[in-house]
Hints:
Strand order of the largest sheet of chain B: 3-4-2-5
Largest sheet of chain A: 4 strands, antiparallel
CATH class of the largest domain in chain A: Alpha Beta
Oligomer: heterodimer
Strand content of chain B: 25-35%
Amino acid sequence: MATQGRIAKQAPWRKKPVSNVQLNNLEKRLLNEFQRGLPLSSTPYADIAAKLDTSEALVIKILARLQDIGVVSRVGPVFMPKRIGSSTLAAMAVPEALLETVAEQISAYPEVNHNYEREDYFNLWFVVTTPDQQTLETVLEDMETTTGYPVLNLPLEKQFHIDLGFPLWC
Amino acid sequence: MVLSEQDYRLIAEIQGGLPLVSQPFAEIAQRVGHSENEVIERINAMQKHGVIKRMGVVVRHHELGYTANAMVVWDVPEMRLEELGDKMGKTDFVTLCYQRPRRLPDWPFNLFCMIHGQQREQVLNYIDRLVETHNLQSIPHKVLFSGRRFKQRGARYQ
């Protein structure tokens, strides 16, 4: 069963160059130690700077740069799924030759935040987030009409992990 | 926790990230027409009640070289779902672990976990370890590595 992934190892997109961002120690610590527990004070960046033994100006400068080059998506909240709004993980099985076109149609929905390819019969996976359940269903139906492919709708039923962010360099 | 109209306005302002200025909450406060203190209090409350899972730097794994990203899906008997979900969720290299519905006949899998690594081999080794550690040889599973990313940003709730 695990061989399924091994066979697919030669997939063509693996040959794309991997982005290689060089980070210094301060930047690494900033990314590793502050994925959670942002100080809820008037001056959170100054508080972070104090813990890292550096200046507020430098912390802000680094975060702005990392955000700029896409290493950091944002400094802010990660919401618990289902506590606000409605969301789901959805998938479609699209012929390879049409994948880019259908992906573009899906990405065009403002309700879609992630949209990516996976190596499977269901090869297009995306997350849809809306203010309420009714809107979610309407959007999914609209996607089926627009693309002509049925949506595999896989809403979250239970979360088992504890979200601690992502440990880097360890 | 019941969220008010004002909470949703606050969520709309912070969901895309805090401004990178000396007093980000003061700036948010100005936009929603509250005091800086009220904004901080409210965010604090949302965090305490689990509406906000965490506040901090949200990184993109891919840009940091964690380009091998596998979603491993398992067809777990109902009776063992809690047990195996707990075990996988507590495994250090498993980033996310969720129960989702089966959609038969196309989709028999009900437990999903996400594993990130720098190389595909590394991720496959992690999966082998998961199977061995918890004796999952009889549980059907499938590995879906991610390919092209067509869109990636934070969710917009409002």
